[in-house]
Amino acid sequence: MIQLSLIGIGTGNPDHVTLAGVKALQAADLILLPRKGEGKSDLVDLRRLLCRELLGREASGRESLNDMQRPRVVEFDLPERDNNTDYLAAVDDWHAAIADVWGELMGTWLPRGGRVAMLIWGDPSLYDSSLRIAGRLGEGGRQRQVEVKVVPGITSLQVLTAEHRIPLNALAEPVQITTGRRLRERGWPTDAASVAVMLDRGGAFETLPSEGIHIWWGAYLGMDKQCLIQGPLSEVGAAILQQRAALREQHGWIMDTYLLARRSY
User: What CATH architecture does domain 157-261 belong to?
Assistant: First the structure.
C-alpha cells in the first residue's frame, strides 16, 4: 500500500505551509519534487527551500536505494505537454504520462509500500490536476494500490486578496473563478459581479470592455519578487501587460492571477 499525501504549500512562502502540511512532510518516506526545465528552475528551487526549512536539512535527490535517511527526496523531470493537438486530449495524454512517471518512481523507491509526499502549489483542489493524476495510478499497467490524502493549502487567490486587502466577493454578491482561456472564449460570466482569473497566459482581460471594471492583479504572489497592480482596468490594463512582459523576460517564467469587479469593494 502506498499512501500519497498531496500537500498544499501555498505560493512560495514557507510561512504559508500549515502545521498539518509540515507534519505530513516529516512523516513521509519519499518526497517527489518535479522539475519543469531550466526556464522554471525557481519552482523546484522553492520546493527545495521548503524541504530544507521544514525538514531541517538539505534536500537533494538520493542516488542509492540503500540510503535509509528519511524522508528521501527524489527529483524527476516532468513530462512535457503536446501543444500541437486538441487541448483536452493533450492534457489527458499528459496526465497519463505523469501518472506513469509517478508509478515508476514509487515502484523503484518504495517497492514494499510506504508514504509519499508531493508539494502542490496553492491547494490541490483549485485548478490543479494532481488529484486527477493520482486517480490514474491504478489504471492500465500502473497497478498500484494508492490511498490519497489531501492536506489543504493557501491559494493564490487568498494571497491576492490579502495583499490587496480586499474581500474576494462584493457584499452579498457571487464571484466566479475561471481561466484566462474561458474568459477569452466566453467573456464575462453571466450573473457574476466579480471574476477571479487564473491560468491566464497574458491579457485575457483585453477582450472585455474596460469601462466600469476594476482589476486587482498580482504576480509571484507570496514570493520575494511579488508584484501588485490595481486600479480601473481602462487605466492600468496596459501597464499590467507591460509589467508582466518585463517580469517574464527577467525571470524566464511568470505565475499571476487577478480579480475583476464591476463595482467598487
Answer: 2-Layer Sandwich (3.30)
